[in-house]
Amino acid sequence: LTPYLDAGGLDFIRPVDLSVIVGNRLDNAIEAVEKIEEEERREILLKIGHKGNFFVIRLENPFAEAPLRIRGNLFQTGKQEEKFHGFGLGNVEQVVESYSGQMNIDLENGVFQVTILLPGPFDSYPPKPAS
User: How would you list the strands of the sheet with 54-62, edge to edge?
Assistant: First the structure.
């Protein structure tokens, strides 16, 4: 796991919502890299930070085989028993939309990338220098 975290100003997101976003994506990424035979490809990239007036969460991981798109941003499970398949990206998408954010999914060159943009109230971040 290669993390880059700048979480200042993140207090506008409820902890449970952040857990849904990051927890789901990390679980899925770990599951995906466990299926990759080449050890040098087993890397997960997590970036959390600011870009303009947005809070950005981006997670990338390689995959052994492409997930099947079923509708919109949702993908069919690769689990043997579908009853153990969580609500995953659907829950993430609901949380993102509840903050008027956007979620983008890209599958390119064997890498699954989810980028989430959340507009944030950054009036107090970054901290203003003391006078």
Answer: 2-5, 45-51, 54-62, 111-119, 102-108
Q: What is the token pair recorded at 17?
A: 């919502």
What pairing do the DSSP bridges indicate for beta strands 45-51 and 2-5? parallel
Contact residues for 112 (Cβ-Cβ < 8 A; gap 6+): 29, 32, 60, 61, 62, 63, 67, 105, 106
* pTM higher than 0.70: yes
pLDDT at 72: 55
13-49 per-residue burial string, b: 16 or more CB within 10 A, e: under 16? beeebbebbbebbeebbeebbeebeeeeeeebbbebb
CA gap 90, 83 in Å, rounded? 15
